[in-house]
Amino acid sequence: xxxxxxxxxxxxxxxxxxxxxxxxxxxxxxxxxxxxxxxxxxxxxxxxxxxxxxxxxxxxxxxxxxxxxxxxxxxxxxxxxxxxxxxxxxxxxxxxxxxxxxxxxxxxxxxxxxxxxxxxxxxxxxxxxxxxxxxxxxxxxxxxxxxxxxxxxxxxxxxxxxxxxxxxxxxxxxxxxxxxxxxxxxxxxxxxxxxxxxxxxxxxxxxxxxxxxxxxxxxxxxxxxxxxxxxxxxxxxxxxxxxxxxxxxxxxxxxxxxxxxxxxxxxxxxxxxxxxxxxxxxxxxxxx
Length: 288
What we know:
By secondary structure, this protein is an alpha+beta fold. The chain has 11 helices and 4 strands; from the N terminus they run αααααααααβαββαβ.
């Protein structure tokens, strides 16, 4: 069952599911919280919100979001991989659809609570998008194009693009609303990182033991994980040692500890969190 689920996460259906969830949550945060409280966000959605407010709410945000994305996707078709383009086009269209059909307001009166809720839902949506092989459109595509062409870091590009959006918002919105929006986007950034790690929690484990071969054999049989021998030397004994290096997910960590200490109760184990592991049995490289 676990293997089937893992295999499913490498299929197009998994990516489409992630992008659909992302589109729904992002649209929900914008339509149900941001617009009723006159908040803005970063990127194309933020620019769409500003134009929506300036039109006196006459121009629908869904139309603005779709139209502003068109020139970006023209560039994306030329400069990014066709797979990333196709997934991102799906994500953008789904976001546009949800922006059009979601017409509700969450009954939150307090501006601080609304900001926290807005950032949390937006961040969850962005987190799902980041775990897919695409995006939901907007300035992420511009950032990726600049990264591919000029090796400019994606985070830096997004920062400066969002800085422009918020300076523009400051011109048309009150300082309080702009600051609340900044807080909301900051929360969204934190939550998206949390969701990104939630999907990919791995533990790098170093095992110093007198029975490395037996431990490696059991890691392979019981956990179906590989391992690597690192060759070292004890600083006191000057004895050559095989140090076992392996990577497991969080659910396998306790089982790994049982394997190790049942075989060698005096083993020395170092566990370290690692956010991203690329390769067979873990994540595949995201191609832009």
